[in-house]
Design goal:
By secondary structure, the protein is an all-alpha fold. The chain has three helices and no strands. It has helices at 3-20, 31-41, 44-93. The relative contact order is 0.04.
Length: 96
């Protein structure tokens, strides 16, 4: 094939790729308004149940975060104790 045919074919492929790439997908919606509308459509008893479930979920997540922080603090304190213990033992073994 001649070079102009290749250039034309390349431009067609680029245009096809550009056209098939979504720039702004209309199917994507903002999550918060959808959930808000769903929540407001619930009966009052349903709102209470969802609210209680949400509070329980948040408290559970906070408990998990606090447990992780407690674990990291304990691990760091243990690391400092082991480090100073090693230094103490290592200094006793050095002849003077």
């Amino acid at each position: 094939m001649s070079e102009p045919n290749w250039k034309k074919k390349l431009e067609e492929i680029e245009a096809e790729i550009y056209d098939s790439t979504p720039t702004n997908n209309p199917n994507k919606t903002n999550f918060v308004p959808v959930v808000r509308e769903w929540f407001l459509a619930l009966p009052p008893a349903g709102r209470v149940v969802v609210g209680i479930f949400g509070v329980m979920l948040v408290l559970s997540l906070l408990g998990t975060v606090f447990s992780l922080v407690k674990f990291l603090l304990t691990l760091s304190i243990l690391g400092v104790i082991v480090y100073f213990g090693y230094r103490l033992i290592n200094n006793k073994n050095i002849p003077k």
